[in-house]
Design brief:
Elements lengths: L1 E10 L8 E16 L3 E6 L12 H12 L6 E8 L9 H16 L6 H12 L2 H9 L2 E7 L2 E7 L5 E7 L5 H6 L7 H20 L5 H4 L6 H4 L6 H10 L4 E4 L6 E5 L4 H14 L4 E7 L6 E3 L1
Parallel strand pairs: 3-4
Antiparallel strand pairs: 1-2, 1-11, 2-4, 2-5, 5-6, 7-9, 7-10, 8-9
Helix pairs in contact: 1-2, 2-3, 2-4, 3-4, 9-10
């Protein structure tokens, strides 16, 4: 049986909507072997929310890989052990999809080269901002083009991440419907400038710029009503010493970049702010995962 460890991810970082994603040191394990018919076992965080049939994202990805390598009749036994809270904006579905694709590729002897595997997982997920960092690790800036994914990977140094995960889900459909069809030109200019500043700050280590660089006008203001207390949680993170903070993916998780020594305090401050509004929340102090999806012994 092939075992693959895949990190959680945070997408839409600040102004980098649908383009910038980060791998986090919270993970799931996807183990897979050939079988006569679909067999799917799930355990861990939110296991009751994960499908047990062929629609499971890891199984779906494995079947796609099987088609690509000329094994259309292949079936699998799949075991998922999960530490990533589902439906919370931490890329759990993308992680499962990446784990299934990597595990299946290993089962078939690694016939698909790394660049092609990247294209496959990004196409299956529909966006590169979760799938690419889940596969590659680090911070990935990517976009889908007619010829495949174009991406740049960075490894931010001396940087920790605090996340606060409230105990309610945000529907991806509702989050997408909240976005307007058109936005003011000045808001687009606002985000373009801050996107450049965000990537420059993360590439050079000038993290004091992140407070400004992580501001956004393209998705957070329109989704704030889906995450009651969002602005207060971000402000609490900044007051506790975070470099910058934002909504993780479509939410409701809030993420903050912090100095390593302040990550636990920032995470606790965000959790406390959610709970002051009557919302139960969990929090973690995490590292940036630089390894991405990896096959385990």
């Amino acid at each position: 049986m092939i075992s693959v460890r895949v990190p959680a991810t945070s997408a839409n970082l600040g102004p980098g909507y649908d383009a910038v994603g980060l791998a986090l040191s919270l993970s799931m394990r996807i183990a897979m072997d050939r079988a006569q018919h679909p067999e799917i076992e799930v355990s861990g965080t939110g296991d009751e929310l994960v499908p047990r049939g062929p629609e499971h994202p890891a199984y779906r990805a494995a079947r796609f890989v099987a088609e690509v390598v000329g094994e259309p009749d292949a079936h699998f036994r799949l075991v998922q052990e999960n530490d990533i809270p589902p439906t919370r904006g931490l890329g759990g579905s993308a992680a499962a999809l990446v784990g299934g694709a990597v595990a299946a590729n290993e089962l078939f002897g690694g016939q698909i080269a790394a660049p092609d595997l990247l294209n496959i997982v990004c196409e299956l997920d529909g966006h590169p901002d979760n799938a690419a960092p889940a596969l590659l690790g680090g911070l990935v800036i990517g976009t889908l083009t007619p010829t495949g994914i174009s991406a740049v990977r960075l490894e931010p140094k001396d940087l920790a991440v605090a996340v606060a995960v409230p105990d309610f889900a945000v529907s991806t459909t509702a989050a997408r419907r909240a976005l307007p069809e058109n936005v003011p030109h000045r808001d687009a200019v606002f985000n373009v400038g801050r996107s450049g500043l965000l990537l420059g700050a993360l590439a050079t280590g000038e993290y004091d710029l992140l407070r400004v660089a992580m501001q956004d006008r393209l998705h957070q203001p329109y989704r704030a009503h889906l995450v009651p207390g969002l602005e207060g949680v971000i402000e609490a993170a900044l007051e506790a010493g975070a470099h910058g903070a934002c909504l993780s993916g479509s939410g409701p998780t809030v993420l903050a970049f912090t100095p390593r020594d302040l990550a636990p305090a920032v995470a606790a401050a965000m959790k406390k702010t959610f709970e002051a509004r009557g919302t139960t929340a969990r929090s973690w102090a995490l590292d940036v995962d630089l390894m991405g999806a990896r096959v385990e012994p």
